[in-house]
């Protein structure tokens, strides 16, 4: 318990001073929503039916893939790792606390979008809000799993940022939130299915919850979990 409280306190301090967290989890997603929400609904009025889902997929993908990896590099690629070891804190706790903190921030951002989109742009509220937020939570968890792999696998801050952007751009462009995915060439449409954003968007816009619709996301999450375990084992040596 002492180790957990120490790790939680350290993570809280990191979150407070983290500009990356503020920018990627709140500022950029909400600014994108404010600008693109009006453009989408003016040019394509039919997007009001999926505006909340589209903006949420963008915000979660941004916050996870761009925001989390640098935070993990800060923990495992600096003196913070030695502080964990010196105080008897297991190294996996840094990953868990970072992911949990980001999950909470991204869900808060999703709630803000959910509440702001209808009055701001006339967006349609999902028929079942409870089920919608369950789908959002699943998608957020999977996205954070992928982000964790990037953060643990790459130790250099500059390389981490580059790889995060490389993962982020296809996730957004091929997910279907900008334009229907079926308009893409078959190869790009297939490539988009390798990323959680495509499946998350389909799950969040579905008329009813389907356990089968979560299978690809659960598969990606399982693969990310296994990779994180292997990478943490390597870091701990």
From TrEMBL:
Its main location: membrane. The chain crosses the membrane at residues 21-43, 55-77, 89-117, 129-154, 161-179, 213-232. It is found in: Membrane. Residues 11-207 form the ABC-2 type transporter transmembrane domain. InterPro entries: ABC2_TM. Keywords: Membrane, Transmembrane, Transmembrane helix. It is a multi-pass membrane protein. This is ABC transporter permease. It comes from Ruminococcus turbiniformis.
């Amino acid at each position: 318990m002492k180790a957990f409280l120490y790790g939680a306190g350290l993570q809280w301090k990191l979150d407070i001073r983290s500009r990356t967290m503020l920018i990627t989890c709140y500022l950029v997603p909400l600014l994108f929503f404010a600008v693109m929400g009006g453009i989408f609904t003016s040019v394509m009025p039919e997007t009001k039916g999926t505006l909340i889902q589209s903006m949420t997929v963008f915000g979660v993908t941004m916050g996870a893939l761009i925001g989390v990896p640098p935070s993990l590099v800060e923990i495992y690629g600096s003196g913070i790792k030695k502080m964990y070891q010196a105080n008897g804190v297991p190294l996996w706790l840094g990953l868990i606390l970072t992911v949990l903190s980001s999950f909470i921030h991204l869900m808060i951002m999703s709630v803000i979008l959910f509440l702001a989109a209808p009055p701001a742009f006339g967006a349609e509220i999902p028929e079942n809000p409870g089920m919608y937020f369950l789908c959002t939570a699943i998608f957020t968890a999977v996205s954070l799993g992928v982000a964790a792999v990037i953060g643990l696998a790459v130790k250099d801050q500059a390389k981490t940022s580059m790889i995060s952007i490389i993962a982020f751009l296809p996730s957004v462009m091929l997910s279907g939130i900008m334009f229907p995915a079926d308009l893409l060439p078959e190869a790009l449409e297939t490539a988009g299915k390798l990323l959680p954003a495509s499946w998350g968007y389909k799950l969040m816009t579905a008329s009813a919850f389907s356990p089968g619709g979560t299978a690809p996301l659960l598969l990606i999450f399982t693969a990310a979990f296994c990779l994180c375990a292997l990478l943490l084992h390597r870091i701990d040596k």
